[in-house]
Every structure is written in C-alpha cells, then in structure tokens.
User: Which sequence fits this backbone?
C-alpha cells in the first residue's frame, strides 16, 4: 500500500476497543520467558514489535503458543535462556532490543542483535556502558554506541552497584531493572542525569512486581533489586489497552466536537491505568475538552466554551512525561486559538525517526508556522488548514497523528500507511469505524 487518501471528515463519533499496549505486552512477554512456570497472557498486542519479541524468544529456546491473536502462553525458562547462541533481528522495536540486550549480556552465550537501518541509528551506548561496568562483554558491529551488537560470555560482578544515564531513553534503565534479578544478588542502580519518560519506568516496576520482584526506589534516582528473588509466573495476566493509541481517538472526539461531532469513547484503559500516557486527558481538559474517565474507559468531546469559540485553547506545557502522546498534542495545536509550545520533548530525536524535525516538516505542509529547537516545538495554527501529502518516515505515530488533520475539513494523503503495523495494524479501519475517513488505498 503506497498511500491512503482520507477525505474531509464530517464527523467522528463512537466507541473504540483499544489494542493492547505495546510497552506492557513486550515487558510481560520477556518477564514470562524469564520466570518460573507458565504464564497465560491475555490481550497481547498483535503487531510488528510484539512479533519481533516473540520470534526472538523462540530463537532463544523459549516455548510459547498462541491461541488466537491476543492470547499467548509462555513456558518460562526460570532465568536461563536454553539457547546459548542466536542471531536476532528485532526490526525497530526498542522495547525488544534494549531489554533483550541486557538479559542476554547476563546469559553466558554468543548472540548477535540487529534491526532495521533506523534501529542502527538509535543510541544504545549508555546501556552498553552500564552492562560493561558489570563485566559484560559486548562489541559493536557498526558505529560505536549504536546497534548492531555482538554479545559474548562475560564474567559478571553480581551485586555490584551500577550507574546508567537516564536523559536519553528510559528504556536503558528499564533494561537494567528487568535483567538484574537474573544475577540473584542485591543490586543497586543509580540514574545519572534527569530521567526522561518516568511513567514508562513505573510500568516496568509494576510488571516486575506482578512477577514477584519488588524493586525499592528512592524517587527516580536509586533503585534497589532484592537478592535471591527470582521471577515467578502470576499464572494469568492481562494487558491494558494502549493509552498512547487512545490519544488519537480522544483527540478526534475533541476536534470533531467543535463542529457538532463527538463524543468518542475508548475502551480498555481508564482511571486505574498504569500507563503514563493516560495523563493525555489532562492536556485535553486544559485545551477545553470535556473528558469522562471510568474504570476501563475514557470519553472525550469538546466543551461548551471552545465550541462557542470554534477553537481549542492553545497550550504551553512540559511533555517529558508523555512523549508519545505529545505528538497528538502537536496535531491538536492545529485546531487551537493561538500558538502552542511543547517543551522537554528531546527524546523525540532518538525515536523511530527524528520526530521533532519530521513533525515540524509535516505540520508546515498543512499550513502551520513552526519553530523547532533541540527539545521543543512551537506551533502557530493556520487560519485554514491546507490539503497535504504527509510523509511518514516509517514512523507509525506520524501516520496516525496526521490522519486527524482530515477532521479539519481537508483531504489528507498518508504515504506508506502500512507503517502503523508497528503497533496498530488495524488503525485506519478502526478510525473509519467512527468516521468517514477511509476513502482510497493504492
């Protein structure tokens, strides 16, 4: 599919059942593989990133079966991967590449990890340095500091304290936390610099707790892993709906509500969510939306004040805590009553693409005036949105974000729409189910 055309959307309204969270799915799959006992995982996301993890686990000797697309049974290996040699291809799945790097560094085997070209541009040096400080043997097969990697048997110093930088990606800390219980010794991890994307670390700690390992923390600076506490299967576990994916549909409810549409309800995530991106609702409210949150659902539409004004309220805020959902905020800014500024989003630079540069370029295509800095984006909405052809940079979130521009009454062409398969293969058909967005595929 080279492109997908979206005609101007007159109205968005309805209910969406969310796919499972990618972040939770891949964490659970790896923990289930490392645990003692068999784990039945319900509502697993079926996407490219989870398939890369599942395929890697199979190559490492982990036995798993799949009842249907959303239920996976994993037979845990009790902390020891059966295969001591493997070559793994992990696409552009950071949630698979980073944690597997750490787990395999302690596995005593010979492994090679590679991905797509963009994965080889995403930094991993801070994680490798932390692992090497514990005695791991890892070599770069390309540019220093970046994948692909070769992992060799090393002499690991169990129980040693280790430092890891936190200001590039929280996945480095996640990888260390998930792998250190395999050593069986009390371990201390200290975070150097500011920790980005803290809510994703909260997901990691929550999932580790479900598998029997309770990590003590001193704010977000020091984490202590207890000694001699192996992972044990909880038996059955459920994956929450994807809060990042929820942002697109909730935004659609708010935007469409300006012109008589909405509300839009998402099911699978709610007030008890462990995902940081559920805080996207705070931004929606600040921009004038009415949001109702239930136990496992969220509903959004435009509030009376912004309906009367015909525009959402502009926003100036720090989005370090919800970097993925912040991309949806950039699209909401197109429908705002003034200049919006997204701050502390430097982690966008090392995602599936350089998202600051890519978003700035594509926002300008639809008529916005955009200024971009090292870790910020300033967006002035156009008086009238322009029809545009959106390049997606093999980045699923850019494709999903810019589909919402059609709610502004313009035609939008999404190039390479298949890139959404990374986390949400059915995104465009689900969008069509609550609107008249899907029109032409070539």
Assistant:
């Amino acid at each position: 599919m080279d492109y997908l055309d979206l005609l101007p959307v007159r109205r968005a309204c309805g209910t969406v059942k969310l796919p499972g969270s990618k972040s939770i799915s891949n964490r659970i799959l790896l923990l289930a593989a490392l645990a003692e006992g068999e784990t039945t995982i319900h509502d697993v996301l079926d996407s490219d990133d989870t398939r890369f993890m599942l395929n890697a686990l199979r190559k490492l000797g982990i036995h798993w079966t799949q009842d249907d697309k959303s239920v996976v049974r994993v037979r845990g290996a009790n902390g020891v991967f059966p295969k001591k040699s493997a070559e793994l291809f992990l696409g552009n799945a950071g949630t698979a590449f980073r944690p597997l790097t750490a787990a395999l560094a302690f596995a005593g085997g010979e492994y090679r990890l590679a991905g797509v070209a963009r994965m080889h541009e995403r930094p991993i040096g801070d994680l490798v340095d932390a692992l090497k400080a514990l005695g791991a043997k890892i070599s770069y097969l390309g540019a220093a500091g970046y994948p692909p990697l070769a992992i060799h048997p090393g002499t690991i110093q169990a129980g040693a304290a280790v430092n890891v930088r936190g200001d590039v990606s929280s996945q480095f800390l996640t990888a260390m936390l998930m792998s250190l219980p395999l050593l069986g010794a009390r371990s201390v991890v200290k975070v150097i610099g500011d920790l980005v994307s803290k809510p994703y670390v909260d997901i990691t700690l929550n999932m580790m707790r479900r598998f029997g390992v309770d990590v003590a923390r001193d704010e977000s600076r020091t984490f202590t892993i207890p000694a001699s506490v192996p992972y044990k299967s909880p038996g059955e576990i459920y994956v929450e709906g994807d809060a990042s994916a929820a942002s697109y549909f909730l935004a659609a409810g708010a935007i469409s509500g300006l012109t008589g549409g909405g509300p839009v309800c998402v099911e699978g995530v709610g007030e008890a969510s462990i995902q940081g991106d559920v805080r996207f609702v705070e931004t929606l409210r600040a921009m004038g939306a009415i949001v109702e949150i239930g136990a496992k659902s969220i509903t959004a539409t435009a509030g009376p004040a912004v309906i009367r004004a015909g525009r959402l309220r502009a926003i100036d805020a720090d989005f370090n805590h919800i970097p993925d959902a912040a991309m949806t905020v950039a699209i909401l800014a197109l429908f705002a009553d003034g200049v919006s500024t997204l701050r502390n989003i430097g982690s966008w630079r090392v995602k599936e693409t350089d998202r600051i540069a890519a978003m700035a370029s594509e926002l300008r295509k639809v008529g916005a005036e955009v200024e971009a800095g090292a870790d910020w984006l300033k967006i002035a909405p156009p008086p009238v949105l322009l029809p545009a052809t959106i390049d997606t940079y093999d980045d699923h979130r850019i494709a999903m974000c810019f589909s919402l521009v059609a709610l502004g009454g313009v035609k939008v062409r999404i190039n390479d729409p298949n890139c959404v398969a990374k986390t949400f293969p059915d995104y465009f058909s689900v969008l069509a189910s609550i609107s008249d967005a899907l029109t032409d595929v070539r």
